[in-house]
Amino acid sequence: MNPNTPLSPRPLHHLSDVRHRILTSRQLREHGVPAATVAERCRPGGPWQQLLPGVFLLHTGPATSEERLHAALMYTLPRARVPAQPGPTSAAPRDAGADSYGQAMITGPAALALHRFTSVPSLLSLDHIDVLLPRTRRLRPTGFVRLVRAHTLPRTELLTGVPVAPAERAVADTVARMTESAAVRRLLAEAVRGGHCEAGALVGELSRARLLRRPYVADAVDALVTEGRAIAEGRLYEMVRAHALPAPLWNVELRLPGGPFLVGVDAYWPDHAVALELDLRNPRQEEDPWSEHLRGRAHMERLGITVVRLAPGMLRDAAALEQQAAVVRTALVASADREPGAYVVVLPR
User: Fold this and answer.
1) What tens digit of pLDDT does each residue of 105-118 get?
2) In 3-state terms, what secondary structure has residue 301?
3) Could you tell me the superkingdom of the organism this chain comes from (predicted)?
4) Mean of the pLDDT values across residues 310-330?
């Protein structure tokens, strides 16, 4: 029998191409193929092959990267459940997405390859594919599938029809298996420089994974935060220049006359009593320094100084720069309708 011949009682032509080539044992039974026939077709020299327990490739030759990704996800499905396959009269199905595989998603280097990172191997050259799934799932790693378990799963992203972990989570899962400081530094740098994720979000994910306890990761994070600040400051300079905002005093600290330090800010407009700060907290810091910073901000606001706080993600592209420039301009204009702010001493930071 031709292995591509549609099987009864439900033909396979309604499936997407990759779903036509990768099926579980349960799906094959539902299409009228008994276990004995599957075993016969998967014998040496046969037209099919078993990629993973309960997951079959319906052609000879090596599996493509797309087939391996979907097979890895198919393996994680409970044996009593498979992705919904609409019949010929059903409404147009959704593409194979996050819902098709329950909560499972690709993470680690395979996910980074789908996110188009250049510092990880190509999908075809990866020996293993990491799949993130709930900690409660009872499943063993097998073949080319490695399992990463979590109490709380992130929101999935759909890339080329495959549910994938967000870039920062995929980076953290990749770093967890890395031991070379230079390689970790390159990966973190690409994540930020390439615009895949913000430094704060990435470092937060590394912190939740308890990876900052590793000295080579902590060192790479310090460099990452420094670089993230430089990138964000460059965008901030561009925002002020491109949108013709008044020139502020850059990178200063504010103090009361003869009194204590209030806070350091990234930009300050003394004639308008408006301060701007970038939210670039490093999760490696202890809680107290940041709490002290928050107290300083609250004190400034009591003194009549308007504080505009921006996260780096708010300065990511031209549209975002325009929007935040409008926020700053509004604060500057509104200063004319307020009581003058208290006098503060401005010093280089």
Assistant:
1) 999 999 999 999 99
2) helix
3) Bacteria
4) 88
Query: Contact 105/164 with Cβ under 8 angstroms?
Result: yes
Cis amide linkage into residue 9, ω under 30° from 0: yes
Strand, coil or helix: 142: strand
Rounded Cα gap, residues 187 and 109, in angstroms: 10
| b/e code 218-244 from CB counts within 10 Å (16+ = b) | eebbeebbebbbebbbebbeebbeeee
Taking the C-alpha atoms of residue 246 and residue 307, their distance in angstroms, rounded to an integer, is 16
- Domains, in order of start, for the chain: 98-230 (no CATH), 240-348 (3.40.960)
* Residue 180, SS3 per DSSP: coil
Residues with Cβ within 8 Å of residue 32, at least 6 apart in sequence: 7, 8, 9, 10
∠ at Cα 144 (63, 82), nearest 5°?
Answer: 75
Q: Quick check: 28 pLDDT over 50?
A: yes
Closest CA to 115 of 150, 67, 165: 165
**244: DSSP letter:** T
Output the CA torsion 175→176→177→178 (10° steps).
40
Q: Whole-angstrom Cα distance, residue 277 to residue 267?
A: 7
- DSSP-derived secondary structure letter, 206: H
* Packed helices 215-242 and 318-334: angle between N→C axes, nearest 10 degrees: 70
Question: Residue 38, SS3?
Answer: helix
- Torsions phi, psi for 124 (to 5 deg): -65, -25
Q: Do residues 98 and 156 lie in contact, with contact meaning Cβ atoms separated by under 8 Å? A: yes
